[in-house]
User: Fold this.
Amino acid sequence: DQQVKQNSPSLSVQEGRISILNCDYTNSMFDYFLWYKKYPAEGPTFLISISSIKDKNEDGRFTVFLNKSAKHLSLHIVPSQPGDSAVYFCAAKAGGGNKLTFGTGTQLKVEL
Amino acid sequence: DGGITQSPKYLFRKEGQNVTLSCEQNLNHDAMYWYRQDPGQGLRLIYYSQIVNDFQKGDIAEGYSVSREKKESFPLTVTSAQKNPTAFYLCASSVFGEQFFGPGTRLTVL
Assistant:
């Protein structure tokens, strides 16, 4: 049972435009959400997170939006740059624990 | 220079052999994790440890074993009972929800 879903395995965007990556979850106990970026043959690196008490969190070019009623979150990257080309993972956790549940990832390609 | 190290980067083993993957962290984190990444399947949790001398099975623990004798170290053994061990293995540690990952080990079974 996939509790965190990223239904788009890939996304292609032109440099300078907005990239929107989507994530859906089914477990209503999730209260903290994270986005990670991963290059091939490397470990994921943390990008941005959001608590369920917020609906938006912004950090530079990266903004995460959370819609609790729809159990949906999205990552916006504006403007997109070629160096943003990577796999992006959505992750979620419940309660005070540290265990994360990851989605299957979306491969973003930013083209010149 | 704090971080998580995994060694080796690439590992080859013959079918039927056990192999141990190393993970060391100097971030003073209590919790450590092992994940496996396969194409199209994201990161799947193998084992995790919240504190020294304690660990729990994750979603795909069969064929794997771990130990946590020191806070800094969380080695993973891939046993011959693991039916499909060829994968990219990632170790992580955490203190407040956010997990920090090592560079990974690519294990190939010949």
The radius of gyration of chain A is 13 Å. Chain A touches chain B through 21 residues (CB under 8 Å). DSSP finds no helices and eleven strands in chain A.
